[in-house]
Amino acid sequence: MTPHEPPESALYRTLLESTRAIPWKIDWATATFAYIGPQIEDLLGWAPTSWRTVQDWADRMHPDDRDRVVNFCISQSQSGVDHEADYRALTTGGDYVWIRDVVHVVRDLQGNVVSLVGFMFDITERKQNEHQLLQLQQELQELSFRDGLTGVNNRRKFDAVYEREWQEAQRTGEPLSLLMFDVDFFKSYNDQYGHVEGDECLRRVARALQQAAHRPRDCLARYGGEEFVLLLPGADASSARAVAQRCMQEVAHAGIVHAASPLGQQLTVSVGMGTALPGTQDDSKRFLETVDRCLYRAKHAGRNRIEATA
Ligand SMILES: Nc1nc2c(ncn2[C@@H]2O[C@H](COP(=O)(O)OP(=O)(O)OP(=O)(O)O)[C@@H](O)[C@H]2O)c(=O)[nH]1
């Protein structure tokens, strides 16, 4: 108790200064701190006496938060509206602590703002949890678009990217090429080496195809069991053919032995290929079917080859 402090005032002070929330008061006319709880020193390291003006408060805020928070708090206070703001406050050690400031605007009988009183809460832990949750959500979303076996995009992701790129090609008038791959004689590969080796084989094929796709917008996906697709936005027929040839070379370089293949000792793939210049009336599904028919032709013409749309 300070010398002339009445007992209940001392009680309030004890209550205020023993909470984890940090109380403060700002005199509106002078924009100076009339009071800040001593707990602030434990949290941020700055002594209560060093909190003199509103500028001290703003200066000890993360630069990325400062304008947003200061402008918001000033405009809310001017309008006499109670408010809350989250921001990172600087510690004397140079770190930042997430604070939630809960502000009550005190007005006189005429409605003029007299002072601001509030509490600062340390919400660092909550923010860290939020951040972790957000990261987890992103990882989950990322996983939901990946094929579990090979790690490349899955069919769901491909469908979404394909529709988006189709519309983009319609808008820009750029070509859109599509390659479809099917592993040759894969059933006999499984029969010969077993499903575990078969799975490993699909992973190696996926890696090989991925190596042949160089541009950032190229999208490789596992389309079905032993089928892959590679979408090549912006690629015309001749660049698509070059990529298709590179894919076959990469698969050959992977050197996957397939002793039972009637085509030799190595695993091969068949490729269907198409290039579209999608007009507004054109149908994306029809183009997929056309390329799928090319793949079918490649299979029936003997496999280990590329067949393209006319
Ligand atoms: N190991 C493994 N095998 C798979 C997977 N998905 C599909 N398959 C197998 O892939 C084989 C595909 O066989 P088919 O469609 O008859 O074709 P193929 O033997 O490759 O013959 P062609 O395509 O005509 O050259 C089937 O035996 C499927 O069981 C998978 O995830 N792992």
Automatic annotation (TrEMBL):
Q: Name one GO biological process term.
A: negative regulation of bacterial-type flagellum-dependent cell motility
Top-level lineage group? Bacteria
Q: Where is the signal peptide?
A: none
Instruction: Give the enzyme's EC designation.
Output: 2.7.7.65
Give the catalysed reaction(s), semicolon-separated: 2 GTP = 3',3'-c-di-GMP + 2 diphosphate
Query: What Gene Ontology terms describe where this protein resides (cellular component)?
Result: plasma membrane
One term of GO molecular function: diguanylate cyclase activity
Q: Which CDD domains match?
A: GGDEF, PAS
Sequence ranges assigned to domain GGDEF in this UniProt record: 174-310
Q: Pfam families of this UniProt entry?
A: GGDEF, PAS_3
According to the UniProt record, what class of enzyme is this? transferase
Question: Which InterPro entries does the record associate with it?
Answer: Diguanylate_Cyclase (IPR050469), GGDEF_dom (IPR000160), Nucleotide_cyclase (IPR029787), PAC (IPR001610), PAS (IPR000014), PAS-assoc_C (IPR000700), PAS-like_dom_sf (IPR035965), PAS_fold_3 (IPR013655)
Domain PAC residue range list: 83-135
Q: What is this protein called?
A: diguanylate cyclase
